[in-house]
Amino acid sequence: MPAPSPRLLRTATPAIPAARRWAAAYGGGAGPALDLTQAVPGYPPHPELLERLAAAAARPANAGYGPIEGERALREALADDLSRSYGAAIGPDDVAITAGCNLAFTMAATVVAGSGEAVLLPTPWYFNHRMALEMAGIGVVPLPCRAEEGFLADPEAAAALLDRHPAIRAIVLITPNNPTGAILSPERLERFAQLARERDVWLILDETYRDFLPEAGAAPHALFQATDWRDRVVQLYSFSKSYCVPGHRLGAITAGGAFRAELLKALDTFQICPGRAPQEAVAWAVPGLRPWRDANRQLMAERAAAFAAIMATVPTWRVEAIGAYFAYLRIPDGLPDAEAVAERLAAEAGLMVLPGSFFGPGQERHLRVAFANAPEDALRAVPARLRALGA
């Protein structure tokens, strides 16, 4: 039998199924199993959005191919929303719709780099970013982020790595971050944009969780206000969390200029077109559900505060970063490293979380908790499950 691709053989197995397999040994002694592995909304889609999804799926026209870059109505709706949010002039021709944000990242990486080239990826990183780059044969240069600095990527450290690795073609940032929840300030993002400008590399900014920033109204950054942003900045976005439709796979890339011209090749090759029915429904939802979306932002901010207060009752498990959908916990001294701890929590206490080792080098003393998908009552069970390990 011939061997599969060496690149795929080197790529890690999917993280969330691995963690859930550990829970197969759980006997129920600590109460119902609590799955905090995946970033999914803990509430259903808006009822009218569900109605519109059903109606759109029943339209015969939506069973055919659509535009490569996505339906114009959704691109217009998102461009208007971005313009409002960032105080910038962004048009529908700056926006391309994708079959999910993971695919958006894969296509963006394909545009900016190839074999023999590399991307600067902060650690802890989102494991699917790392996996996509490895499958594509694109090198990864880790940019370590330190707990004592709030896991915030450092532009000066990035500059030093760019000097040492001339093959780097792009800097990737996630804000709010997955896995830590850390939020990069507008000033720090501007420093990264300036660095990208000086070193002639792309800045890929994954803002999947931008609708869950704790403060409403303030622009997350001013990068889109620069006259040359289309020459340098690529923004990624996901509709999954904001509209509770992860199964419908809708994401977006906002970019312009030479990047967009080459992106159309990747769009046509990887997806042909995104699903048409969800695009129709979500095009209505972007402006139509703005108050509902803001209420969910407030709900997630309250849940983050509640989880921080809950974790304060077990101070040996230190919350070293929290925000949006995630908390990043430091494992107490005396316990083994992350993967062994996560397996024991799942098998012995029915608590499923992801070990930091899934998120890159240097993360063996951390766990990621996706608290957004559980109500506060369920989260109150977490301290007792953690104490079951004896720390």
Automatic annotation (TrEMBL):
The keyword Transferase applies. SUPFAM superfamilies: PLP-dependent transferases. Belongs to the class-I pyridoxal-phosphate-dependent aminotransferase family. Residues 36-382 form the Aminotransferase class I/classII large domain. It is an enzyme of class 2 (transferase). Keywords: Aminotransferase, Pyridoxal phosphate, Transferase. Its cofactor is pyridoxal 5'-phosphate. It catalyses: L-aspartate + 2-oxoglutarate = oxaloacetate + L-glutamate. This is aspartate transaminase. Its EC number is 2.6.1.1. It comes from the Bacteria. Pfam families: Aminotran_1_2 (PF00155). One of its GO terms (molecular function) is transaminase activity. The keyword GTP-binding does not apply. InterPro entries: Aminotransferase_I/II_large, AspAT/PAT-like, PyrdxlP-dep_Trfase, PyrdxlP-dep_Trfase_major. Gene3D superfamilies: Type I PLP-dependent aspartate aminotransferase-like (Major domain). It comes from Roseomonas elaeocarpi.
